Each structure stands twice: as structure tokens, then as C-alpha cells.
TrEMBL record:
Domain of life per record: Bacteria
Entry-linked Pfam families: Fer2, Fer2_2
Lineage: Bacteria, Pseudomonadati, Myxococcota, Myxococcia, Myxococcales
Species of the source: Archangium minus
Protein name: (2Fe-2S)-binding protein
UniProt KW Transcription keyword: no
Keyword Iron-sulfur: yes
PANTHER family named in the record: BLR6218 PROTEIN, OXIDOREDUCTASE WITH IRON-SULFUR SUBUNIT
Record's signal peptide: none
Length: 147
């Protein structure tokens, strides 16, 4: 069934089952491989994208339920110039890197919603998991991003 979405500023039409999770449409139909599959159960956050600016776990969201604009890590900036991306580079946050696009997207949504977040706001927003356990560096990157 044809589904029309707005992804990273472009309107796209894909032919998929309406129950297909947004994650798989992004990765398999649109070739946007920056959004990762981790748990597939809404727990880890590797699949985090923005839907209308809100951090959303795309592995659980049926494509037919998407309304509004989707932004993936590829759409955050064309040259890694988004404040969250710059902060991640400055803090050298990634270890293996697998979860980091989801982490950056969670941070970018936080910056948009709360440009001057408290430590409690950061803790509430940054709930994505990291198997390497680089939470200290991720926290440092968020603190750089919000400066
Ligand atoms: Fe979506 Fe883990 S893959 S939350």
C-alpha cells in the first residue's frame, strides 16, 4: 500500500504494508542507514528519529501512524554542524558508535524543546542505552551542546 511521508524535508512515497515500523521504511525503502535497529521493542533508543521534532523510537511506530515530518540523523545537518553533532565530536563520545545517532537525535530533540535544560531535564531526555557504557562522555557531550 502506498504511504506518503515527509522525511528530511522531502516528500516520499513508499509501497509498504501499513503496519511496517517506520525504522524499516527508513532503512530498507529509503536507504537511510544512520537509524539503527537495537532491540525492536522500544527500549534501547538506537532507532530514535524525530517526528515533528519529538524524539520517537521508530521501531515501534507503524508507518501508517506517522503524521507530520520525520527527521533522521541524515537530516539533522548536511555537514555535522548541528550543535549536538559538534558536541559529540568535541566530547569524543562514541566508543563502538552503534547507538550514537539515536543518542544525538535524543539530544537534538531536548535542545529544541528545552534550550536551557536542567540536569534533571537531561536525565529525563537521555534514556537511550549504550552497550559500551559511554554514559559519562554522552553526558559531557550533552552539556557541551547546551552551553
Ligand atoms: Fe527501537 Fe531499541 S530498536 S528502541
Amino acid at each position: 500500500m502506498a504511504q506518503t511521508l515527509k522525511v528530511n524535508g522531502k516528500e516520499v512515497t513508499v509501497d509498504v504494508d501499513p503496519g511496517t515500523p517506520l525504522l524499516w521504511v527508513l532503512r530498507e525503502k529509503l536507504g537511510l542507514l544512520g537509524t539503527k535497529f537495537g532491540c525492536g521493542q522500544g527500549l534501547c533508543g538506537a532507532c530514535t528519529v524525530h517526528v515533528n521534532g519529538t524524539a520517537t523510537r521508530s521501531c515501534l511506530l507503524p508507518v501508517a501512524a506517522v503524521s507530520g515530518e520525520v527527521t533522521t540523523i541524515e537530516g539533522l545537518s548536511s555537514d555535522n554542524s548541528h550543535p549536538a553533532q559538534r558536541a559529540w565530536i568535541e566530547a569524543d563520545a562514541p566508543q563502538c558508535g552503534y547507538c550514537q545517532s539515536g543518542q544525538v537525535m535524543a539530544c537534538a530533540a531536548l535542545l529544541k524543546a528545552k534550550p536551557n535544560p536542567t540536569e534533571a531535564d537531561i536525565s529525563a531526555a537521555m534514556t537511550n542505552l549504550c552497550r559500551c557504557g559511554t554514559y559519562g562522555k554522552i553526558r559531557k557531550a550533552v552539556q557541551i551542546a547546551v552551553k
